[in-house]
Amino acid sequence: KPPDVLRDGDIIFASRGARFAAAAVQAPPLPAVCSQHFFVLRPRPGVPVLPAYLAWVLNSAPAQRTFAQAAEGSSQLSVRKPVLAQLRVPLVPLEQQHAIVRFVQAAHEEQRTLERLIANRRREVDLLADALAEQAAG
């Protein structure tokens, strides 16, 4: 069987590890395939679901709890396809999906901004400590 190449709108799902993460694929630059550690999800044609919304649902706390409870394995946890297939995805109207995706993107951008501010403040504190140490030594 030829490999199944990723397409725009696919969702990849990491089925092994400590966290079972999903991501929407947007215009892959080259033909790419996933390793066996990932499931490739494709919404059925005609089903009104945004890939970014579906990835958000899979990454949400309720879905993650479901995956954690159903995970199997002793040294490395994994989620089987039937568990993923049985997950109930709340299908809301497309306009609401767009709003949720925008909200989530804004929250991620806010988090990145706050992390940059925290890193800047740490650098300022370190510079202050360096200046005081230099003053005390000199």
Short note summarizing the structure:
The chain contains 4 helices and 3 strands; from the N terminus they run βββαααα. With 138 residues, it is mainly α.
Please tell me about this protein's structure.
There is one protein chain. The chain is mainly alpha-helical. Helices cover 50% and strands 8% of the residues. The chain contains 4 helices and 3 strands. It has a 3-stranded antiparallel beta sheet. Strand 1 (11-14) and strand 2 form a beta hairpin. The longest helix is centred in the C-terminal third of the chain and has 44 residues, at 94-137. The relative contact order is 0.12.
The radius of gyration over CA amounts to 21 Å
> Structural class of the secondary structure composition?
mainly alpha
User: Main beta sheet, described?
Assistant: 3 strands, antiparallel
Mean pLDDT: 92
Order of helices and strands: EEEHHHH
Distance between the termini: 73 Å
- Outline the low-pLDDT stretches: none
Strand adjacency order, main sheet? 2-1-3
Helicity, as a percent range: 40-55%
Tally of helical segments = 4
Q: What is the assembly state of the chains in this entry?
A: single chain
Portion in beta strands: 5-15%
